Amino acid sequence: MSKTIIQSAAVKSKQDTRLVEALNLVLADSYALMSLTHLAHWNVEGPGFFSLHKAFEDQYEDLFEAVDEIAERIRALEHYAIGGLTKLARTAGMEEFTSPQSQKDYVASLIVAHEKVIDDAARARDLSGEFEDPETQDLMIKRIQSHQKTVWMLKSFLRS
Amino acid sequence: MASSVQSCPPAKLAADCSATSCRGGCALEVIDELLARTDSVRGEDADLLLDLRSWIRRREDAEAVLRTFCELRRRLEHREYLAFFRLRRWLENHLIAEVRVCPAAEPRPVPVRLQYFCLEAIRRASLCSALGSGEPLLAPRVQFVYRTQPSSDEPSISSRSVSAVG
Fold it and tell me: What is the per-residue pLDDT for A39?
Protein backbone atom coordinates (compact mmCIF):
# COMPACT_ATOMS: atom_id res chain seq x y z
CA MET A 1 0.00 0.00 0.00
CA SER A 2 2.69 2.50 1.01
CA LYS A 3 4.68 1.55 -2.10
CA THR A 4 1.66 2.45 -4.19
CA ILE A 5 1.38 5.83 -2.48
CA ILE A 6 5.07 6.52 -3.00
CA GLN A 7 4.78 5.57 -6.66
CA SER A 8 1.73 7.80 -7.00
CA ALA A 9 3.56 10.76 -5.41
CA ALA A 10 6.62 10.03 -7.54
CA VAL A 11 4.57 10.06 -10.72
CA LYS A 12 3.03 13.40 -9.77
CA SER A 13 6.39 14.90 -8.87
CA LYS A 14 7.80 13.76 -12.23
CA GLN A 15 5.18 15.87 -13.95
CA ASP A 16 5.42 18.83 -11.57
CA THR A 17 8.75 19.42 -9.83
CA ARG A 18 7.53 22.07 -7.38
CA LEU A 19 7.40 19.66 -4.45
CA VAL A 20 10.89 18.28 -5.05
CA GLU A 21 12.26 21.80 -5.48
CA ALA A 22 10.63 22.78 -2.19
CA LEU A 23 12.13 19.71 -0.49
CA ASN A 24 15.57 20.47 -1.91
CA LEU A 25 15.27 23.99 -0.51
CA VAL A 26 14.45 22.60 2.94
CA LEU A 27 17.41 20.24 2.56
CA ALA A 28 19.72 23.16 1.70
CA ASP A 29 18.29 25.26 4.55
CA SER A 30 18.78 22.44 7.02
CA TYR A 31 22.34 21.80 5.92
CA ALA A 32 23.21 25.50 6.11
CA LEU A 33 21.60 25.77 9.53
CA MET A 34 23.49 22.70 10.71
CA SER A 35 26.76 24.33 9.65
CA LEU A 36 25.88 27.59 11.40
CA THR A 37 24.85 25.77 14.55
CA HIS A 38 28.14 23.87 14.49
CA LEU A 39 29.98 27.18 14.12
CA ALA A 40 28.11 28.60 17.10
CA HIS A 41 28.88 25.41 19.08
CA TRP A 42 32.60 25.86 18.45
CA ASN A 43 32.91 29.60 18.96
CA VAL A 44 30.38 30.60 21.60
CA GLU A 45 32.03 31.85 24.77
CA GLY A 46 31.11 33.57 28.00
CA PRO A 47 29.18 32.80 31.18
CA GLY A 48 26.56 30.63 29.45
CA PHE A 49 29.17 28.61 27.57
CA PHE A 50 28.44 25.11 28.85
CA SER A 51 24.66 25.26 28.40
CA LEU A 52 24.84 26.85 24.94
CA HIS A 53 27.71 24.61 23.78
CA LYS A 54 25.67 21.52 24.69
CA ALA A 55 22.38 22.90 23.33
CA PHE A 56 23.99 23.72 19.98
CA GLU A 57 25.47 20.21 19.87
CA ASP A 58 22.03 18.65 20.37
CA GLN A 59 20.63 20.90 17.66
CA TYR A 60 23.21 20.14 14.98
CA GLU A 61 22.91 16.42 15.71
CA ASP A 62 19.14 16.66 15.15
CA LEU A 63 19.78 18.53 11.90
CA PHE A 64 22.30 15.91 10.77
CA GLU A 65 19.60 13.25 11.03
CA ALA A 66 17.06 15.54 9.39
CA VAL A 67 19.09 16.23 6.26
CA ASP A 68 19.48 12.49 5.72
CA GLU A 69 15.74 11.91 6.08
CA ILE A 70 14.85 14.75 3.72
CA ALA A 71 17.39 13.67 1.09
CA GLU A 72 16.17 10.08 1.26
CA ARG A 73 12.58 11.23 0.87
CA ILE A 74 13.60 13.09 -2.29
CA ARG A 75 15.18 9.85 -3.56
CA ALA A 76 12.00 7.95 -2.67
CA LEU A 77 10.17 10.36 -4.96
CA GLU A 78 12.63 9.28 -7.68
CA HIS A 79 14.48 12.59 -7.83
CA TYR A 80 18.01 13.54 -6.86
CA ALA A 81 19.00 15.44 -3.74
CA ILE A 82 21.17 18.51 -4.20
CA GLY A 83 24.57 18.58 -2.47
CA GLY A 84 27.99 20.19 -2.24
CA LEU A 85 28.72 23.06 0.12
CA THR A 86 28.62 25.79 -2.53
CA LYS A 87 25.37 24.56 -4.06
CA LEU A 88 23.71 24.10 -0.67
CA ALA A 89 24.81 27.51 0.62
CA ARG A 90 23.73 29.26 -2.58
CA THR A 91 20.37 27.53 -2.58
CA ALA A 92 19.69 28.24 1.08
CA GLY A 93 20.78 31.89 0.83
CA MET A 94 21.16 32.01 4.58
CA GLU A 95 23.18 34.50 6.59
CA GLU A 96 26.66 33.25 7.43
CA PHE A 97 27.50 35.09 10.61
CA THR A 98 31.01 35.93 11.65
CA SER A 99 32.76 35.11 14.89
CA PRO A 100 33.30 36.36 17.48
CA GLN A 101 29.94 37.77 18.41
CA SER A 102 27.94 37.91 21.61
CA GLN A 103 26.11 34.87 22.95
CA LYS A 104 22.81 36.63 22.36
CA ASP A 105 23.73 37.44 18.77
CA TYR A 106 24.58 33.78 18.10
CA VAL A 107 21.20 32.80 19.49
CA ALA A 108 19.31 35.55 17.63
CA SER A 109 21.09 34.67 14.35
CA LEU A 110 20.08 31.03 14.76
CA ILE A 111 16.47 31.97 15.54
CA VAL A 112 16.30 33.93 12.28
CA ALA A 113 17.78 30.93 10.43
CA HIS A 114 15.32 28.50 12.03
CA GLU A 115 12.46 30.78 11.04
CA LYS A 116 13.56 30.59 7.40
CA VAL A 117 13.57 26.79 7.55
CA ILE A 118 10.10 26.83 9.11
CA ASP A 119 8.78 29.09 6.33
CA ASP A 120 10.27 26.91 3.59
CA ALA A 121 9.17 23.66 5.27
CA ALA A 122 5.64 25.02 5.60
CA ARG A 123 5.59 25.61 1.86
CA ALA A 124 6.79 22.04 1.25
CA ARG A 125 4.15 20.77 3.70
CA ASP A 126 1.39 22.61 1.83
CA LEU A 127 2.63 21.34 -1.53
CA SER A 128 2.72 17.79 -0.14
CA GLY A 129 -0.97 18.17 0.63
CA GLU A 130 -1.63 19.44 -2.85
CA PHE A 131 0.31 16.45 -4.25
CA GLU A 132 -1.60 14.05 -1.97
CA ASP A 133 1.68 12.83 -0.48
CA PRO A 134 0.99 12.33 3.26
CA GLU A 135 4.41 10.80 3.99
CA THR A 136 6.26 13.88 2.77
CA GLN A 137 3.71 16.04 4.55
CA ASP A 138 4.29 14.12 7.77
CA LEU A 139 8.05 14.58 7.44
CA MET A 140 7.67 18.32 6.92
CA ILE A 141 5.28 18.62 9.87
CA LYS A 142 7.83 16.84 12.08
CA ARG A 143 10.58 19.15 10.88
CA ILE A 144 8.45 22.24 11.53
CA GLN A 145 7.64 20.99 15.03
CA SER A 146 11.31 20.38 15.76
CA HIS A 147 12.34 23.85 14.53
CA GLN A 148 9.50 25.53 16.43
CA LYS A 149 10.61 23.80 19.62
CA THR A 150 14.20 24.95 19.07
CA VAL A 151 13.04 28.53 18.41
CA TRP A 152 11.09 28.45 21.67
CA MET A 153 14.19 27.30 23.55
CA LEU A 154 16.43 29.89 21.91
CA LYS A 155 13.93 32.69 22.54
CA SER A 156 13.74 31.61 26.18
CA PHE A 157 17.50 32.06 26.43
CA LEU A 158 17.22 35.62 25.11
CA ARG A 159 14.82 36.44 27.93
CA SER A 160 17.39 35.46 30.53
CA MET B 1 48.29 57.58 13.66
CA ALA B 2 48.78 54.38 11.76
CA SER B 3 48.55 52.23 14.87
CA SER B 4 45.30 53.87 15.94
CA VAL B 5 43.89 53.27 12.48
CA GLN B 6 44.79 49.59 12.68
CA SER B 7 43.02 49.27 16.02
CA CYS B 8 39.73 50.42 14.56
CA PRO B 9 37.09 47.75 14.02
CA PRO B 10 37.13 46.45 10.44
CA ALA B 11 34.11 47.16 8.28
CA LYS B 12 32.24 44.11 7.08
CA LEU B 13 29.13 43.84 5.04
CA ALA B 14 26.41 41.92 6.81
CA ALA B 15 25.57 39.00 4.57
CA ASP B 16 22.10 38.45 5.95
CA CYS B 17 19.00 40.30 4.92
CA SER B 18 20.35 40.47 1.38
CA ALA B 19 18.56 42.20 -1.44
CA THR B 20 17.26 38.86 -2.66
CA SER B 21 16.08 37.53 0.67
CA CYS B 22 15.02 40.65 2.56
CA ARG B 23 11.44 41.72 2.35
CA GLY B 24 11.39 45.51 2.10
CA GLY B 25 8.89 45.96 4.85
CA CYS B 26 10.44 43.69 7.44
CA ALA B 27 11.72 46.57 9.59
CA LEU B 28 8.23 48.05 9.62
CA GLU B 29 6.79 44.68 10.64
CA VAL B 30 9.23 44.46 13.55
CA ILE B 31 8.30 47.99 14.67
CA ASP B 32 4.60 47.17 14.40
CA GLU B 33 5.12 44.08 16.55
CA LEU B 34 6.93 46.20 19.14
CA LEU B 35 4.15 48.78 19.12
CA ALA B 36 1.61 46.02 19.73
CA ARG B 37 3.38 44.96 22.93
CA THR B 38 1.66 47.34 25.29
CA ASP B 39 3.16 45.58 28.31
CA SER B 40 6.73 46.54 27.41
CA VAL B 41 6.34 49.50 25.03
CA ARG B 42 4.42 52.61 26.00
CA GLY B 43 4.59 56.39 26.26
CA GLU B 44 7.72 57.99 24.91
CA ASP B 45 9.03 54.66 23.62
CA ALA B 46 5.95 54.32 21.42
CA ASP B 47 6.38 57.89 20.16
CA LEU B 48 9.99 57.17 19.21
CA LEU B 49 8.99 53.94 17.49
CA LEU B 50 6.35 55.79 15.48
CA ASP B 51 8.94 58.39 14.43
CA LEU B 52 11.33 55.61 13.40
CA ARG B 53 8.59 53.84 11.48
CA SER B 54 7.65 57.00 9.62
CA TRP B 55 11.23 57.78 8.54
CA ILE B 56 11.92 54.22 7.42
CA ARG B 57 8.64 53.94 5.53
CA ARG B 58 9.44 57.10 3.56
CA ARG B 59 13.16 56.31 3.33
CA GLU B 60 13.93 59.68 4.88
CA ASP B 61 16.53 61.09 7.25
CA ALA B 62 18.91 58.19 7.78
CA GLU B 63 20.70 60.25 10.43
CA ALA B 64 17.53 60.56 12.51
CA VAL B 65 16.77 56.88 11.95
CA LEU B 66 20.09 55.88 13.49
CA ARG B 67 19.85 58.37 16.35
CA THR B 68 16.35 57.21 17.23
CA PHE B 69 17.30 53.55 16.85
CA CYS B 70 20.20 54.03 19.28
CA GLU B 71 17.92 55.75 21.79
CA LEU B 72 15.30 53.01 21.53
CA ARG B 73 17.97 50.33 21.75
CA ARG B 74 19.25 51.75 25.02
CA ARG B 75 15.71 51.84 26.39
CA LEU B 76 14.23 48.57 25.18
CA GLU B 77 16.83 46.07 23.98
CA HIS B 78 17.18 44.37 27.37
CA ARG B 79 13.49 43.40 27.11
CA GLU B 80 13.19 42.97 23.34
CA TYR B 81 16.56 41.62 22.23
CA LEU B 82 15.37 39.67 19.18
CA ALA B 83 13.35 42.57 17.80
CA PHE B 84 16.34 44.87 18.07
CA PHE B 85 18.61 42.24 16.53
CA ARG B 86 16.26 42.13 13.52
CA LEU B 87 16.16 45.95 13.31
CA ARG B 88 19.95 46.15 13.66
CA ARG B 89 20.47 43.70 10.82
CA TRP B 90 17.92 45.48 8.65
CA LEU B 91 19.55 48.86 9.19
CA GLU B 92 23.04 47.49 8.53
CA ASN B 93 21.81 46.19 5.20
CA HIS B 94 19.79 49.21 4.15
CA LEU B 95 21.97 52.11 5.30
CA ILE B 96 25.46 53.12 4.41
CA ALA B 97 27.92 55.72 5.71
CA GLU B 98 29.36 58.13 3.18
CA VAL B 99 32.76 59.34 4.37
CA ARG B 100 34.49 62.34 2.81
CA VAL B 101 38.14 62.88 3.68
CA CYS B 102 37.54 66.57 3.04
CA PRO B 103 34.41 68.50 2.10
CA ALA B 104 35.30 68.58 -1.61
CA ALA B 105 36.24 64.92 -1.87
CA GLU B 106 34.14 62.21 -3.41
CA PRO B 107 32.12 60.31 -0.78
CA ARG B 108 33.51 56.91 0.15
CA PRO B 109 30.76 54.38 0.99
CA VAL B 110 31.40 52.41 4.17
CA PRO B 111 29.14 49.70 5.62
CA VAL B 112 27.31 50.75 8.77
CA ARG B 113 28.04 48.48 11.73
CA LEU B 114 25.75 48.93 14.69
CA GLN B 115 27.94 47.43 17.38
CA TYR B 116 27.68 50.61 19.46
CA PHE B 117 24.72 52.18 21.25
CA CYS B 118 25.56 55.77 20.34
CA LEU B 119 25.41 57.55 16.99
CA GLU B 120 28.72 59.34 17.51
CA ALA B 121 30.48 56.05 18.22
CA ILE B 122 29.00 54.58 15.04
CA ARG B 123 30.14 57.68 13.13
CA ARG B 124 33.68 57.33 14.49
CA ALA B 125 33.72 53.61 13.65
CA SER B 126 32.70 54.52 10.10
CA LEU B 127 35.54 57.03 9.94
CA CYS B 128 37.97 54.41 11.19
CA SER B 129 36.78 52.00 8.51
CA ALA B 130 37.34 54.60 5.83
CA LEU B 131 40.81 55.25 7.23
CA GLY B 132 41.83 51.69 6.47
CA SER B 133 44.08 53.03 3.71
CA GLY B 134 45.83 55.34 6.19
CA GLU B 135 44.77 58.49 4.36
CA PRO B 136 44.83 61.59 6.58
CA LEU B 137 41.46 63.23 7.22
CA LEU B 138 41.57 67.01 6.84
CA ALA B 139 37.96 67.87 7.59
CA PRO B 140 36.12 64.58 7.57
CA ARG B 141 32.39 64.27 7.11
CA VAL B 142 30.18 61.25 7.56
CA GLN B 143 26.61 61.15 6.42
CA PHE B 144 24.25 58.20 6.69
CA VAL B 145 22.12 57.42 3.66
CA TYR B 146 19.92 54.60 2.41
CA ARG B 147 21.45 52.02 0.12
CA THR B 148 19.90 51.96 -3.32
CA GLN B 149 20.26 48.16 -3.31
CA PRO B 150 20.35 46.66 0.19
CA SER B 151 23.46 44.69 1.10
CA SER B 152 25.15 44.58 -2.29
CA ASP B 153 28.85 43.76 -2.21
CA GLU B 154 29.77 47.13 -3.66
CA PRO B 155 27.69 49.68 -1.75
CA SER B 156 26.14 52.30 -3.93
CA ILE B 157 25.12 55.78 -2.93
CA SER B 158 21.56 56.94 -2.56
CA SER B 159 20.46 60.43 -3.45
CA ARG B 160 18.40 60.73 -0.26
CA SER B 161 20.63 61.73 2.59
CA VAL B 162 21.10 64.05 5.51
CA SER B 163 24.60 65.36 5.97
CA ALA B 164 26.46 65.58 9.23
CA VAL B 165 29.95 66.69 10.10
CA GLY B 166 32.11 64.07 11.78
Answer: 96
Give the Cα separation of B162 and A80 in Å (integer): 52
Domain ranges for chain B = 10-93, 95-162
Rounded CA gap, B136 and B101, in Å?
7
Indicate the residue type of B98. Answer: E
Q: pLDDT tens across A50-98, in order?
A: 999 999 999 999 999 999 999 999 999 999 999 999 999 999 999 888 8
The pLDDT score that the predictor gives to residue A79 is 96
Cα nearest neighbour of A102 on chain B: B115
Q: B18 and A93: CB-CB below 8 Å? A: yes
Least CB–CB distance from B82: residue in A93, A96, A111: A111
Residues of B in contact with A35 (CB under 8 A): none
What are the tens digits of pLDDT across the range A118-154?
A: 999 999 999 999 999 999 999 999 999 999 999 999 9
- One-letter amino acid at A25 equals L
Q: What is the spatial distance between Cα B34 and Cα B39, in angstroms, rounded to a whole number?
A: 10
Taking CB atoms and an 8 Å cutoff, what residues of chain A touch B115?
none
Shortest CA distance to A155 belongs to which of B26, B81, B27?
Answer: B81
**Nearest-CA distance from A11 to chain B in Å?**
32
**Cβ <8 Å between A96 and B15:** yes
Reported ipTM: the value is: 0.83
- B86 and A105: CB-CB below 8 Å? no
Structural domains present in chain A = 14-158 (1.20.1260.10)
